[in-house]
Amino acid sequence: MQPDELALSFPCAGDWLTGILSPAGDAPQRGVLIAVGGPQYRAGSHRQFALLARSLATRGIPALRFDYRGMGDSTGEQRDFTDVDADLRAAIDAFCARVPSLREVVIWGLCDAASAALFYAGQDERVKGLVLLNPWARTEAGLAGTTLRHYYRARLLQPDLWRKLVSGRFDWRAAAGGFFRLAGKALRRPASAPAESPGLHERMLRGMRAFGGNVLLIDSGNDLTAREFLDMAGASPAWRRLLAAPQVQRRTLAEADHTFSRRAWRDQVADWTADWVRAW
Q1: pLDDT tens, the chain, 280 aa long
Q2: What span, in angstroms and rounded, lies between the C-alpha atoms of 69 and 194?
Q3: Is the dihedral of CA 165, 171, 176, 181 positive or negative?
Q4: From edge to edge, which strands make up the β-sheet containing 248-253?
Q5: 108: which strand partners?
Q6: Which of 270, 218, 217 is nearest to 51 (CA)?
Q7: What is the spatial distance between Cα 14 and Cα 12, in angstroms, rounded to a whole number?
Q8: What is the torsion angle, in degrees rounded to the nearest 10, for the CA atoms of residue 76, residue 80, residue 86 and residue 88?
Q9: Which domain of life is it from (predicted)?
Q10: Under 8 Å CB-to-CB from 221, ≥6 apart: which residues?
Q11: Residue 4, Cα to own-chain centre: how many angstroms?
Q12: Other beta carbons within 10 Å of 244
């Protein structure tokens, strides 16, 4: 922890969540809640969440990162991103209580945390902005189609593939088998979800429709998760309309991987986030 950071413990449905607040400025009115994606805790992959929170704080934007129930230092049973509404609400309650000047909260989420933010945002009037990075829209057919469209196309342009072909070291049978298995999955019609239990794509769409605030969508150019979300959204007239709305800004880091693992990528994401949060 940095000397000015504060460790928080706050209740959530009978359990206790642990968070770290990076305070900033005098009476800030807008802060960023960093939601955790995947089975990890509040530091994030290669400490991205810790470094992001500190970067935002130095620019006058307070930030809170925290552990969901059952992760890191929080108590309770572990759950996945489809069941963290109560955790997000508890964290925002604690954030606003500790920084009484806050009037607006931005939820920042990478991967399935972006999807969780979409599920939750429309239920809480304090949430005025979302930063969504490589949202998780994974289905078996979607992944197969995205792999066929993006991985195999890129593979054809790689010199080592053609060197293997010329040298006779290319395994045609294995390659063809993998290709046709993916093609079969891509063409498979997804099972219909019951109306009372919408599927992932429908739940994300409902969340986006219900949220009337500002959105910053950041995608990595070298990430199948991001490609799968963009392929899904591009094939949907409803998603195309929502993403074309004036309150939605989009940024792409062409070379970046899923977690923005290089310092230059991580810093670029922090810069885009801070500039956007202060712009409206």
Answers
A1: 677 999 999 999 999 999 999 999 889 999 999 999 878 999 998 999 999 999 999 999 999 999 999 999 999 999 999 999 999 999 999 999 999 999 999 999 999 999 999 999 999 999 999 999 999 998 877 767 777 676 666 666 677 766 676 677 767 666 666 666 656 666 665 555 555 567 999 999 999 999 999 999 999 999 999 999 999 999 999 999 999 999 999 999 999 999 999 999 999 999 999 999 999 9
A2: 28
A3: negative
A4: 6-12, 15-22, 63-66, 30-35, 104-110, 127-133, 214-220, 248-253
A5: 34, 131
A6: 270
A7: 6
A8: 110
A9: Bacteria
A10: 252, 253, 254, 255, 256
A11: 27
A12: 9
Q: What share of the chain is helix, strand, coil (3-state, %, to 5)?
A: 45, 20, 35
Q: pTM of the entire structure?
A: 0.85
Which tokens sit at 34?
């960093």
Per-residue tokens: 250: 């989009």
Write the Ramachandran bin of 237: left for phi over 0, alpha for psi from -120 to 50, otherwise beta. alpha
Nearest residue to 57 via CA among 128, 2, 126: 2
Tokens 């070298």, residue located: 222
4: amino acid identity, one letter: D
